[in-house]
Design brief:
Chain lengths: ~200, ~200
C-alpha cells in the first residue's frame, strides 16, 4: 500500500500562503487539510473542527502530556498545535494531507517526517510584503512592524525547505504547488512496490 | 544567474521513453534535447546533428581521449556517447536540457551532475513490455529475447533514479514529466538568489 504524502507549507505573514493553500485544496478535493488545535477564542464565523479545534488550556496541555501533538507552540499567550493521530491515519490510508504551519513548527515536523514535502511561500518582494501587510488595514502599526521584523527571520528559514514558491500570482503558485505534489507521487521511493513487482515478473 | 536543469531519462527498451521524450519536448519548446554522438551508420531518414552526431571511430576516440564526452559506451560494436560541451553551455545559460540515455550511462552522469533530475520510465507491466517489443515486428526473436533479459537488469536500476514514471498512457507520462521539471524549478537550491535578495531587502 502506497503511503500518502505530508505536504507542509510555510511562509511569512503576508506571503499569501493561506490563499494559495485554499485555492490548491479547492482544486484537489482528494487532499485533506490538517486542522490545528488552539486555545485562542474563535473569531467570528470560525467553526470548531473546520477552522481549528478550539480547546481549553487544560485540554491542550493534556494533549501535550500524552504526546498527541506533532508540534505545538505558545504564541502571544495562546497555544497552537497539530494533532498527530489524524495525520498518521490519513497517511497510512494513502491519502495526502496538507499542513499549513509556521517555520518553527515545520522544522520540528521535519524531524518526525523527513519524507514530507516542505514548501516555503515567498512574497514577490519585501516591498510587496510590506504593502500587503499594511493593506489589510486590520493591524496596528506596531503589529505590522512586528510582523515585518519576524518575516526577516522566517524568510531565512526558507533555505531549510526543499521547495520555494514565489507567490507573484496565486494561480501560478497553485500550479507550482500542484506540480510539486504530482512530482512527489512519481518519486521512486513511493513506487518501490511497482518496481519490485516488475522485477519479479521477469 | 539561475542554472538550467539536466533532465536525464532512462528506461528499458519498449518502455516508450522515446515517445514520451518526443511528446514532452514537443510541448516544451524551451527545453533542448541533448544529441548523442555515435559511430554507427545513419539509418534511413536520420540526419547528422539532428538524430545523432555521426562520427568515425577515429573522431569518436579523439573525443574520448580529450575528455569531451560526459559518458560513452561501446554497444554491439558501435560507440555511443554524450558530448559534454553543449550541455555545459546550455546549463550555464539557464536552459534545461533533456538527455535520453541508458541506465549504465545515466549512473555515470549522476557522478558528474548530482543535481540532475533522474527519471526512469517503466512500462505498465512486464507482459506489456514483451508485447510492445514483439509488436514492433522489426526485431528477430533473438533480439527480443536479448532485450527482455536486459530489461530485467535495467528495471532494477530504477531504484537509483529519483523519479519513476509508469508509462501507462503517453499523455499521463508527459504530464508527470512536466510536473517533475516544474517542481525542479521550484527547488529551494535553485532559488537561493531570490531568497538572499529578500533577506537583504529587510
Amino acid at each position: 500500500m502506497k503511503k500518502g504524502s505530508l505536504i507542509v507549507v510555510s511562509g511569512p505573514s503576508g506571503a499569501g500562503k493561506g490563499t494559495v493553500c485554499d485555492a490548491f485544496l479547492g482544486a484537489h478535493g482528494e487532499i485533506a487539510y490538517s486542522i490545528s488545535a488552539t486555545t485562542r477564542a474563535p473569531r467570528e464565523g470560525e467553526q470548531d473542527g473546520v477552522n481549528y479545534y478550539f480547546l481549553s488550556r487544560a485540554e491542550f496541555e493534556r494533549m501535550i502530556d500524552n504526546g498527541e501533538l506533532l508540534e505545538w507552540a505558545e504564541v502571544y499567550g495562546n497555544y497552537y498545535g497539530t494533532p498527530l493521530k489524524k495525520i498518521e491515519e490519513r497517511l497510512a490510508r494513502g491519502e495526502d494531507i496538507l499542513l499549513e504551519i509556521d517555520t518553527q513548527g515545520a522544522l520540528n515536523v521535519q524531524k518526525k517526517f523527513p519524507d514530507g514535502v516542505y514548501v516555503f511561500i515567498l512574497p514577490p518582494s519585501f516591498d510587496e510584503l510590506e504593502k500587503r501587510l499594511r493593506g489589510r488595514g486590520t493591524d496596528s502599526e506596531a503589529v505590522v512592524a512586528r510582523r515585518l521584523a519576524a518575516a526577516a527571520g522566517e524568510i531565512a528559514a526558507a533555505k531549510q525547505y526543499a521547495y520555494t514558491i514565489v507567490n507573484d500570482k496565486v494561480e501560478n503558485a497553485v500550479r507550482t504547488l500542484s506540480a510539486i505534489v504530482a512530482a512527489e507521487h512519481a518519486r521512486t521511493r513511493n513506487n518501490l512496490e511497482k518496481i519490485e513487482e516488475m522485477i519479479k515478473g521477469v
